[in-house]
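pipeline/complex-builder :: batch 7 item 3
reading input block
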Amino acid sequence: MRALATVPAMTYLVVLMVIPLGLVIAYAFLTAGRFGGVQGPVTLDNVTRMLEPLYREVLASSVFNAGAATLIAFAIGFPAALAITRLPSHWQTAALIAVVLPFWTNFLIRTYAWIILLNREGLLNDGLALAGLGPIDFLYTRQAVILGLTYAYIPLMVLPIYASLQRLDPQLLEAAQNLGAGAWRRFRTILLPLTLPGIITGCLFVFIPSLGNFVIPELLGGGNSQMIGNLIRDQFLKSRDWPFGSALSLMVLALLIIIVMFQASAARRTRRWGA
Amino acid sequence: MKTQRISARRAVVLGIGGAVSAVLLAACGGGSSGGDSAPSLDPNADLSKQSIVVSNWDAYMDPDAALKFTDTTKANMTVANHATNEEIVGKLTAGGDPGIDVAFVSGQYAQALNDAGLLEPIDPNLVPNLANLYPESKNLAFDPGNKFSVPYAWGTTGICYREDLVASPPTSWNDLLNPAPEYEKKTLMLSTQPWLNLPAAKALGFSANTTNDGELEQIKQQLLKTKPTLLGFDDVTFYERLASGEVVMAVAWDGWCNYSGDPNVKFVVPSEGADLWADTMVVLKSSKNKEAAMAYINFMIGDEMQGWMTNNILYKSPNKAVAEKAAAELGADYPNIAMTPADLAKGEGLIDLGEASKIYQQIATEVQAS
């Protein structure tokens, strides 16, 4: 009977994970068909092509953008989460809704709004012009892409950090203060280690979708600063090279598995500290 | 040329569908596609007993086309949409019966579909309106004599530019490929092939359909050199960016400059020449209602539907009477509509490149990733 109970979960896993992943792995070693799809012979060409400097640079640049977005999201998100926990409880709910609110608007529209703000004829440059400055090319730069990624995913940083800050016993901080620890010391020795699981979760929640994102680099990077997501998308929708797209996807997957393994070991270590 | 972004979800569906149908096809041995001797069509078939499914780009024909077609011929018709040539060709080549009778595809894709043995020959007796088309439009490089396709719209590719923001109008592809310093980061190119290659191919004096490895390498080198000077690649919103003034020159299909709604946006075909493209209608061999399918094609190249197309899409019509009327009425505001077939025929007809199209796609990937 117990075996029977696992059938839905196993079916779910096999149908939605094992089979698709198996297809991606298999496709990565086949040859592109004329109109998309795959055909024989089996080949390593896609893997060797993927390791060419051109594509390694795209990956490195994507990791940089996603990493920068994650760091900025942390730098803004941690103080924001901390500030929310200090609010009276009914205001906390309001503040959390405000954090999540942009998520209820269509992602494309939110991103498009940045174009209106940032472009050479946009609101920001209009403002600068009033002050006798500019115009500055904000849009279609790497900075614009990082800004867009940060903006899109910052709620995913705030929420897990808020959750772990809430679980933190405020008496620990009071005790530390009474014993003469300064603000920095309290942050470094109490806040940071005890909320580390939330921080790591938030960082992963921002980093992973940022790394694969292709809409933001296309709209704010102007198609001129491709990320790995654009490259993969184009292999399927434009170039009809499914095998190469699959190989690139596997490379991203491998990178993310390594990162998640780091996270798991870091989480284990914090548990040991906690005990 | 109409291209739109295909949705990610559709790609996934296509992907899984492709894998499944490949298996099915192998199992069935492609039973229904055997036998190349097409049974001749019956000119007296009762069309009221026939119904067809037409797959077209969204908003590329009169929204009332289906109603009007049924009024005229009594045949029933359903419309399906596709976003890109790639999407519809993927569907039609996946094997089995796609359930589509007539498809709109660009000329070079029609040629590829015909090479794959998927198209029904056009029966000129059932498409009498062919007599109303320009002779030039019936002799396009991908299908001279309309053996398997009939043109719906045709045109060329050039440069859209802001007359008020450039010192002098561009005359050469090089004005965009190697721009003057003041235009750097104010230009756009198309990212889809073969139009990504086209400006460099023509500027270097090569064929728009070149499959020569050395020439393709030179094209790629030029594009790699051009890329840092571009604001980006844009196939969809370039006319808006011309209107806003952030872009002063963009590679564009002729009709699209008109969508900017800005009288300062002009269109020019550079002196080195360009392409001649056509969007066509084809009948699938798997169709069970081929008489109605032919009647539909006949209807779509008739005066009413062609008039709608050229007035609303602002592409040139291959129908002589419609095109001449449009040139007189719209030519002043939309100069591309005033181009004559002789102007168009200076462009090089795009054809299917077979296996070499993979090299084109690799160039697109490498240039955009660089």
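note: The radius of gyration of chain B is 21 Å.
queue -> next item
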